[in-house]
Amino acid sequence: MASSVDPLVVGRVIGDVVDMFVPSVNMSVSYGSKHVTNGCDIKPSIAASGPKISISGHLDELYTLVMVDPDAPSPSEPSLREWIHWIVVDIPGGTNPNRGKEILTYVGPRPPVGIHRFILVLFQQKTPIGHIDHPNSRANFNTRLFAAHLDLGLPVATVYFNSQKEPANRRR
Amino acid sequence: MGLQISAASFFFLLLAVAFAPPTKPDASLIQKACRITKYYDLCLSSLKSDPSSSRADPKGLASIALAVALANATSTSSFLSSLVVGSGGAAGDPALSRLLRDCADKYGLAGDALQASARDLAAEAYDYAYMHVMAAEDYPSACRNAFRRSPGTAYPPELARREDGLTRICDVVMGIIDFLGR
Question: Which domain of life does the UniProt lineage start with (chain B) (predicted)?
């Protein structure tokens, strides 16, 4: 099982955002026809709307999903780490985030400079969460603290992609 | 008679061309900056609404666009607060009142984020300025979503218009900051 988290270790996702964990749930993420695999490149323009995600697990289980950018505003000076892009709770196992409660609406990647990692972390809940207050600011979110606060434990699945600013087309 | 330009004359001709005053440089700077944004016409009209824009450098143009965005956020926040009072407060429609107050807060936060962006812009910390505008742009949709989650409460059309306006002008600001970074 350790080999399946190697890309997360190499990409420093384990370390910067989450601790070492053993994946126990399958999470499939795609933007349009592009399936997300660890470290792949996704253009901001195709990720402007939320991805299609399906997770394994049983219907009577509930999951929480967060999407964060630990490289905001730039990888060399990530003082806004982590920038929170999406929070969905109470996702029934075997379904998708549309079946959950969206606590913080999805905002697509728009990295101003450099190549940023965008990390989707899935947790299994011990109890239903319902509507919680979303953070007032998207900056300086802390996935570990958030998980601790909701007693979520370690992640059950994580995947990340890279994104950088696209060159502007000449309009007009 | 063959046209023969001596080396010296050619050199002086070159100098004259190099130092000739460019025609309408400031108008084309606004156009260049706005071309990069998603909303060219809105960008043009917003920048031109401030007479100093014709003499502004790219950083000045970003500043002007930020001021337009801030004006929207601030006036929308006040507009929402006035709606709370006008609707009879909690005595009228408590659900609507709560939503309006929540939204007034959100637009207030958008204004705070835009002010933070203006400070970062002045300090030439463009990445931070950009992220603050990204944050500001998010608040109007948070307000709309709050209305959506409350069935039976109509989203005021004037608010929808302002939400659209703020989202677009924030996008324009981000475009100009992009242009700055080139």
Answer: Eukaryota
Query: Which positions ≥6 away from A75 have C-beta within 8 Å?
Result: A114, A115, A116
Q: Given an 8 Å threshold on Cβ–Cβ distance, is B138 in contact with A138? A: yes
Q: The dihedral of CA A94, A98, A99, A102: what is its sign?
A: positive
pLDDT tens column, B75-115 = 999 999 998 887 766 567 888 898 999 999 999 999 999 99
pLDDT in tens, A116-143: 999 999 999 999 999 898 887 899 999 9
Whole-model pTM: value is 0.80
A139·B131 Cβ contact <8 A? yes
Check CB contact under 8 Å for A110 and B134.
yes
Q: Which of A16, A130, A121 is nearest to A66 (CA)?
A: A121
User: In angstroms, what CA-CA distances link B81 with A81, B132, B156, B160?
Assistant: 34, 24, 13, 16
Q: How far is B67 from chain A (nearest CA, A)?
A: 21
